[in-house]
């Protein structure tokens, strides 16, 4: 179990992959489960919170593989978003600082990633510098969707500032000439640059990143599973033939802070029954799962959150409420005894799920 803010799922994925590649591996699969408590106190931030979990099976012959040696990581001690009060589930957030930390970490990780992949390409006698164009898809940790669009634009800015001969008369850098000599650290609060970047990168965003926001736009920020919900969104909307061989860039961020940029390569095997086809089939009903959710009024949600506040960390407690709205196969809490031991039960799975089990 890892507790590293929203970065915990990525740290677990890296650890699992390292184990499978090591001499300690005993032939079993590793299971990475990303989950979190993504709730806010009453106020403007509360609607951005989401609920969800993502599980990943890690082993050989996978339909998605981590590209070896291509990882840029940046860590820093900073109080941008944290939970100092263990009697509450709610975070303390410095919004302006948190966004600046996110962008700074993105710049640092992309710089290291590009350096590593350029070194690889040089060994392969590829002289062209790596740019955003070589990601077929680019996914991000998603606190809110507008931040992701600005982040994709920042990657374009990094490419632009690294290319002294970039064409600003036409093409993707059109309209950026006035910003050619800027330093990255001076750009975080420049609204004119931000506006120009969003305009210049709109087409690239629509192509490479917008499809990944299917879950985030409807479900909010899940915290730890966020970037992997974006991955699931991409996989749910494309065929095996469309994805085969593609490179998916990923930026994972956790406040405090820890961050990494890495890439996944999609298998070329699109045959019926292949691991890739099986993976995509398992995600094909994602839109239907979203539509199957029960809608409630904001007042009802506020009442639920109030009850959670009042019962947080209670011992000798039996949760109240109906389980009828839980999906088949869901595990749920039934009792917390006087020693804070927790007991669970499960809704019966569907017949199809029972057969798979």
Describe the structure.
This protein has 357 residues and is of the alpha+beta class. The chain contains eleven helices and ten strands. It has helices spanning 8-21, 95-123, 145-162, 191-208, 214-219, 226-237, 240-243, 275-283, 286-291, 298-311, 351-356; strands at 30-34, 54-58, 64-75, 81-82, 92-93, 137-140, 247-254, 258-266, 331-336, 342-346. The strands form four sheets. The chain has a four-stranded mixed beta sheet, sandwiched between helices. A hairpin with a 5-residue loop joins strand 9 (331-336) and strand 10 (342-346). The two termini are 25 Å apart.
Overview in brief:
It is built from 11 helices and 10 strands. With 357 residues, the protein is α+β, with helices and mostly antiparallel strands.
Q: Give the terminus-to-terminus CA distance.
A: 25 Å
What is the makeup of the main sheet? 4 strands, mixed
SSE string, helices as H and strands as E: HEEEEEHEHHHHHEEHHHEEH
Cα Rg? 22 Å
What are the low-pLDDT stretches, counting only 5+ consecutive residues below 50? none
The portion of residues forming beta strands comes to: 15-25%
What average pLDDT do the residues reach? Answer: 93
Number of helices: 11
Key phrases:
alpha+beta; four-stranded mixed sheet; globular
Set down the secondary structure blueprint.
Blueprint: H1 8-21, E1 30-34, E2 54-58, E3 64-75, E4 81-82, E5 92-93, H2 95-123, E6 137-140, H3 145-162, H4 191-208, H5 214-219, H6 226-237, H7 240-243, E7 247-254, E8 258-266, H8 275-283, H9 286-291, H10 298-311, E9 331-336, E10 342-346, H11 351-356
Parallel strand pairs: 6-7
Antiparallel strand pairs: 1-2, 3-8, 4-5, 7-8, 9-10
Helix pairs in contact: 2-3, 3-4, 6-8
């Amino acid at each position: 179990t890892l507790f590293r803010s929203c970065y915990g799922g990525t740290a677990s994925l890296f650890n699992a992959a390292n184990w499978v590649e090591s001499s300690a591996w005993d032939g079993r699969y590793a299971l990475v489960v990303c989950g979190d408590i993504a709730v806010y106190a009453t106020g403007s931030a509360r609607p951005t919170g989401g609920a969800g979990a993502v599980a990943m099976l890690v082993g050989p012959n996978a339909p998605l593989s981590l590209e070896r040696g291509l990882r840029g990581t940046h860590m820093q001690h900073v109080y941008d978003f944290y939970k100092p009060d263990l009697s509450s589930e709610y975070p303390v957030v410095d919004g302006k600082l948190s966004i600046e930390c996110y962008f700074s970490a993105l710049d640092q990780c992309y710089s290291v990633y590009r350096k590593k992949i350029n070194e690889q390409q040089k060994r392969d006698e590829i002289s062209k510098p790596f740019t955003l164009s070589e990601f077929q898809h680019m996914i991000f940790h998603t606190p809110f969707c507008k931040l992701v669009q600005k982040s994709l634009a920042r990657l374009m800015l990094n490419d632009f500032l690294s290319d002294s001969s970039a064409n600003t008369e036409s093409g993707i850098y059109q309209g950026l000439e006035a910003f050619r000599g800027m330093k990255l650290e001076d750009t975080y609060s420049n609204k004119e640059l931000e506006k120009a970047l969003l305009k210049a990168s709109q087409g690239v965003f629509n192509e490479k990143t917008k499809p990944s926001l299917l879950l985030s736009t409807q479900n909010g920020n899940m915290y730890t599973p966020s970037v992997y919900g974006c991955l699931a969104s991409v996989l749910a909307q494309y065929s095996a033939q469309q994805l085969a061989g593609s490179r998916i860039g990923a930026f994972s961020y956790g406040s405090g802070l820890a961050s990494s940029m890495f890439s996944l390569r999609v298998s070329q095997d699109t045959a019926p029954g292949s691991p890739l086809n099986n993976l995509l089939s398992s995600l094909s009903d994602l839109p239907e799962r979203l539509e199957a959710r029960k809608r409630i009024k904001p007042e009802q949600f506020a009442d639920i959150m109030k009850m959670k506040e009042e019962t947080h960390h209670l011992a000798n407690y039996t949760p109240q409420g109906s389980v009828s709205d839980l999906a088949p196969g869901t595990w749920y809490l039934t009792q917390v005894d006087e020693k804070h031991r927790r007991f669970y039960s499960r809704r019966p799975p569907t017949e199809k799920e029972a057969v798979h089990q």
